[in-house]
Design a protein that fits this description.
Elements: H1 38-48, E1 62-63, E2 66-67, H2 86-116, H3 120-160, H4 174-223, H5 231-259, E3 267-269, H6 271-289, E4 292-298, E5 303-305, H7 307-323, E6 330-337, E7 341-348, H8 377-387, E8 391-397, E9 401-409, E10 419-423
Parallel strand pairs: 4-6
Antiparallel strand pairs: 1-2, 3-5, 4-10, 6-7, 7-9, 8-9
Helix pairs in contact: 2-3, 3-4, 4-5, 5-8, 6-7, 7-8
Length: 424
């Protein structure tokens, strides 16, 4: 049987109007969700969250090897058990194997000499010579073959634990030397990939921070009544989301290119018409910047390639050339056929690229100080060109300009004719 409960909430007093007085004005109506105090209310809610309690320090364990370090993982015994490395075990095993073989040979020779009745002095001399030769053979074998393999096993174990700086520095000869060189090359590639992976996370966070800050600031300003809720503010939010969408699309294209999964929709394409369309599209921008842009095309017939991807590549190269060319400069597009390839180049008379930066211009998120892009354009261009089976390279010098060359393989049977166009 349940016990009835009483409502202990006090009644709300209502003000009675005074006879003969004017009715009270309703006063300003404050929307609890959209009012100017929304930001303060959100701050109070965040402040009400209890802070995280600090983790108590681990107990100090003292042993013959000293106190337990602070960085030692929890749950792992201290001091650690001494464990012989795989390389040491391997070397000991090989040494014992060769030592056993030499011992068997020595004993076999000694037994044969005793049975044959040879002199004791001559027998001991022969046994000593065999023993010395065997020891020298074992030492040389361990030095040239087993020691590099033992160091290799240690380095493999370190890489398996995530230490990509591991290398094999023990000198070796023959096929063992090739094995060691191949392992060191693989380790260097793994280390470089790990560095690029960490840098990628930092660069993505940096590029996403600005548009996210614009979206957050504009939205909070509209909620707090600081900004008007008009189309101009909404367009700012849409532009910022478009920047993030374009960045994510570029990252996806790079990921597909690196993994070999970039799908190309090749079809016979009139590359000369594509270049002419790009020239027409960039003419107003070039004229506005005071830059002369022209093209010399020596092509005929269609070329088998992905028109969407290749247009993206050429558009990016022309955009970079126009952006970095001062007033009065020139941007030149050249395309010609060779017996086995199609060569396209985009050159400018801009400021040029320093020699120290030139090897890195096709890296992710590399960009010059005055660049307004995300730093992914040339990396995507390289991925698309390589997916076509071609190559892309750059030559530049400070004060003289830059030239980007693209070489694509083509099928035979095409002849070349000349055509040119310009805009200034």
């Amino acid at each position: 049987m349940s016990t009835p409960t009483s409502d202990t909430t006090p009644p709300v007093a209502t003000a009675e109007p005074i006879p003969g007085s004017a009715p009270a004005s309703p006063g300003p109506v404050i929307d609890a969700h959209w009012g100017p105090s929304a930001r303060a209310r959100r701050r109070e809610q965040r402040a009400a969250v209890p802070p995280m309690q600090p983790t108590p320090p681990p107990p100090v364990v003292v042993s013959a090897r000293g106190p337990r370090p602070e960085w030692w993982p929890q749950g792992e015994p201290w001091p650690p058990k001494t464990k012989r490395s795989a390389g040491q075990t391997f070397i000991r095993g090989v040494g014992c194997f060769f030592g056993g073989i030499i011992g068997l040979v020595v004993f076999a020779v000694a037994g044969a000499m005793l049975l044959s009745g040879a002199s004791a002095l001559g027998g001991w001399a022969m046994l000593s010579a065999l023993l010395i030769i065997g020891l020298i053979f074992v030492y040389r074998t361990l030095q040239q073959t087993v020691a590099p393999l033992g160091s290799l096993m240690v380095a493999v174990d370190r890489i398996g634990q995530g230490d990509y700086a591991a290398r094999v520095d023990v000198p070796a000869k023959g096929d063992v030397a090739k094995l060691v060189a191949g392992f060191n090359h693989m380790a260097a590639r793994l280390e470089q990939d790990e560095i690029q992976r960490k840098a990628l996370f930092a660069d993505v966070a940096h590029e996403m921070r600005t548009p996210l800050a614009v979206v957050q600031g504009t939205t909070e300003g509209m909620l707090d009544g600081i900004y008007d809720r008009d189309d101009q503010r909404l367009e700012t939010i849409i532009d910022s989301t478009a920047v993030m969408t374009r960045l994510l699309d570029d990252l996806r294209t790079l990921s597909l290119a690196d993994s070999g999964g970039l799908t190309l929709h090749k079809e016979p394409t009139d590359l000369a018409s594509m270049i002419d369309d790009l020239l027409t599209a960039w003419e107003p921008r070039a004229v506005e910047s005071g830059v002369r842009i022209s093209a010399t095309v020596n092509l005929q017939g269609p070329i088998d390639l992905d028109p969407v991807r290749m247009r993206q590549v050429l558009d990016n190269l022309i955009a970079n050339a126009v952006r970095h060319t001062p007033t009065g400069g020139d941007v030149q597009i050249d395309a010609r056929l060779t017996p086995s390839a199609v060569q396209v180049s985009v050159s400018d008379t801009g400021s040029g690229i320093p020699a120290a930066d030139l090897p890195h211009i096709f890296d992710r998120f590399w960009k010059s100080k005055d660049s307004g892009g995300s730093g992914l354009g040339l990396a995507i261009a390289k991925g698309v060109v390589v997916a076509h089976g071609g190559t892309i390279s750059a030559d530049s010098a400070l004060g003289t300009g830059t030239i980007i060359r693209i070489t694509l393989p083509r099928e035979g049977g095409q002849t070349a004719t000349s055509a040119s166009g310009s805009a200034s």
